[in-house]
Amino acid sequence: MSERFIQGLLNQCWMILVVITAITLLSAATASRVNFDSSIESWFIESDPSLATYNAFTDIFGADQIVVVGVFAEDLFDGKVLRAIQQISDQAGKLQFVERVQSITNSPIARRIGGIDVAGFREQVLASPLQRATLLSADARAMAIVIYYSRSGKSDRQKHEFVIELRGIVRDAIGNLDATVAITGGPLIGEAAKGRNADDMATIFPLMIFLIVVITYVVFRKVPLTLLPLAVVAIAVTWAFGLMGLLGWNMSMISAILIPLILAVGVAHSIHIISGYRRNLERGIVADEAVQRSVVRLLKPCFFASLTTAIGLLSLLVSDVVPLRQFAVIAAAGVIAAFVVSIVFLPVMLRLLPVTEKSGAALVSKFVMPLLDALHNFGRRYPRRILATAAAAAALFLWLATRVGVGLDPLLWIPHGDSIRVDAERIDAAFGGGLSLEFLVSSPGGELGTPAALRELEAFQAWLIANTTVVNATSVADLVKEAARIAREADDAGYTLPRSSVLTDALLESMQRDGELAHWLTADRRTGRIFARIPLTSAQDIVDEIPAIRKRMRDDFANSDLNLQITGQAVLAGIMQTNMIDSQLYSFSVALAVVSAMMILLLRSLLLGILAVIPNLLPIVIGLGAMALADIAFNPATVMIAAVALGIVVDDTVHMMTVFDREVRADQRTADAIRTTIMEVGRPVFVTSVLLAAGFGLLVFGSFLPSRQIGGVIAVIVIAALATDLVVLPAILRETFSTSRTDG
């Protein structure tokens, strides 16, 4: 049946090319609609309680994502410096997606005394504990402009335009002043990360393609055979992203892994088919028949390898994380596309571009084949030593894998010394950070304006600052204390909450009329907020502290009329990371079970199917252990390594076990079947592994840290998989089947 199918394809070469070209062009058109969505909210289903709390908060109080512009000068209250700050504040407030701007120049103090040029403005600001805590550095040499960026501006293009315009505003305002500026915040860090990644892709990715082309050419010595694997990958990637556009989905931070995954699968299939084709030519078989025999022989293992990988990826559908589920569908579709293109497009091109010469076989004969022969002889002599070494390595790296930490670092993407990181660190040091943590405070009875409720908020804020990473926390309680201080005409000693309900009500009503409470307390006094500022460099710390914060909230407000809910971008990011890691652990277990079941089905043997899992699992354990050695933590980028690696390593194992099973069923002795498997499948497995390891290894030389980490770890896994397939798996087979001890 497969012979007739392949012959039918070869008889319709031009029709096949027309169909593939049409599908590819349509896919390219729909792929152009795909955008990049970097918003935190996209990682949650609509019914998620955490997202519901966040939505409730932003519906009432607006944006919580902040961008901080820090102005540093010896004399911040010099008229020119203040006017520059005012210019930045006013113009930034007019930018699209900016909800409001908070600065000294538009503060209640400036409005109350008549502007920043009025005599005594410096003294009034420095006398205010509230302004000093929120907008001034401790040494009064840095002043913050806090810009609240709207959730609606979530696309990369919108954030890019905002960053460009803001930088232009700051540059024009500061001019030649004796002052420096630092800017940080989510949109700027995201923009910088995207830029660093784009720079790497513009340099490293072409080098990766060039390296693959060079290695493939050295092996095959024919330009058509060199370019065909890349053509297969390009078509499959276009189809995958075309499906993404057709479904109306956007790219996320994990979508970048799609191309390396499809590259690995497409190149592997292509190398196996081309190697089989060349091997047939070396045996004197004519070109057309060489193509047909190669594809017929590899159709089953390629199909099962692709199906196993696709089903394993679809195990991610068990996750509630929306981008993971979308990734599962698109990645599985990309893997199947790579299989279809390899089986349909590749034979047609080999038919139209026949290679009759044997050039290129010399390298395989002089280097690869002797190496495979040496590995076979080594494995035949020392199978038990190999297994003992593998078991020891597995135990060691499994122990190391349990030491891999978790790290949520918004600055992960930015190298040390980079201007973006330097700015973030300056903002952290001067103002307590550019990351916000929010608390939604509710009182069904409208008690938030009472002295007792305000004191509860004050006490909780003090606990946050004393016991967590929070550097500064502000609520309506602080606004009331500031208003009371002004009413008392006092210094810091008067910055206290009034004991009188009458005075408290009067102060709140006055601030309500002046519009000062709009972002802190609703008019019915049923809902308020606590705004806490966190250093960007301490994002993981606050995530780790959230359980303790929740416990404190339960303890402090168990018998209170107030109810507190923690929310904000930092909280959502922490929950997203936890959900991703939990989903990966569960889905990887499901994927491993699926791979085992598929191996058993393919090999029609429970024992062989179980044995085939070992070469898939051991390299991943080694890769995770290598992460611990390299101090690489699980984060939203690296958490996908295991799933991607499983999809890569399963291909070669399927080919190895398929040939071994075929040879054993053909009444070969175990030792002979192992030798045939190594010498036949070892060539494409070796070439594919070298290609992938070299390609992924190149990412280590980039500047985008997540790509460097992913590339380095996957390169280690690919090399470990090569050693496992060619050395450990044969040793397992020798020791498992008793005939291997007597016949070889």
CATH class of the largest domain: Mainly Alpha
Low-confidence spans: 739-744
Secondary-structure class: alpha+beta
Backbone shape? elongated
- The span between the termini is 36 Å
**Number of discrete helical segments:** 26
Query: How much helicity do the residues have?
Result: 55-70%
Total E-strand runs = 8
**Widest β-sheet, arrangement of strands:** 2-3-1-4
Number of structurally distinct domains: 3
CA gyration radius, whole angstroms: 32 Å
CATH architecture classification of the largest domain: Up-down Bundle
Polypeptide structure, described:
The structure is a single chain. This protein has 744 residues and is α+β, with helices and mostly antiparallel strands. It folds into 3 domains: 391 residues, Up-down Bundle (Multidrug efflux transporter AcrB transmembrane fold); 127 residues, Alpha-Beta Plaits; 139 residues, no CATH class. The chain is built from 26 helices and 8 strands. The strands form 2 sheets. Strands 2-3-1-4 form a 4-stranded antiparallel beta sheet, with helices on both faces. The chain is elongated, with a radius of gyration of 32 Å.
What's the short story on this structure?
With 744 residues, this protein is α+β, with helices and mostly antiparallel strands.
Summarize the topology.
Elements: H1 2-11, H2 13-31, H3 49-61, E1 65-72, H4 79-92, E2 98-102, H5 108-113, H6 121-126, H7 129-135, E3 142-149, H8 156-174, E4 180-185, H9 186-220, H10 223-246, H11 258-282, H12 287-314, H13 322-352, H14 361-381, H15 383-401, H16 419-431, E5 435-442, H17 451-467, E6 472-475, H18 476-488, H19 501-513, E7 527-534, H20 539-557, E8 563-567, H21 569-603, H22 606-629, H23 641-665, H24 670-698, H25 705-736, H26 739-742
Antiparallel strand pairs: 1-3, 1-4, 2-3, 5-7, 5-8, 6-7
